[in-house]
Amino acid sequence: MFQDVSGVQRFLFVFPHRELFDVLSTQELLVSLESERERRWKAEQAARRMADSLQELRQKGQETEDMKKQAVEATAHIKQAMLKEHESNQTLQQELTTLQDKLRETQEQLSSSQRAEQRSREALREAETSLGRKDAEEMAARIHQEIRKRSRRKGYKKERNRVAEEEEERPEESMRLKEEEKLEKDKIIS
To answer: Bias category Basic residues: which stretches (predicted)?
Structure first.
């Protein structure tokens, strides 16, 4: 029966005097009020701590979201950079292939030009040699004609001696003529 009844009601039931009840009830009310204030203060502190914790969690959640967004943006940026790098590598590879082909063509042209130049030099040497022979033959023919003319005029022996002396005076030319004749014979043989 006393279990359902509050403390003040129990007091009134036990002590029917009202004055005493007022003093005790005021003290009880003050104690109750003080304990209520304490509980409210503790509840406010707990609510404040919970609000702070909730705010921190929200901030951490926002920071996590921001970091995820930054990671996605960085990944997209890296992908774009990789695509650009890949495209530039392909372009450079194509340019390299083109330049290698041009280099190969240029080297082939150079080697063909060098062969043509070598052939031209050989032809020029042959032409010089043949011209030298022709000049030598013409000179020999002129000398021979001179000898004939002079031999008719003065005497053959004197003229022959003089031509031999002239040949002795110009040994380089006679040696050159002999070498050219020998080279021509070798070319004809080969």
So the answer is: 149-160
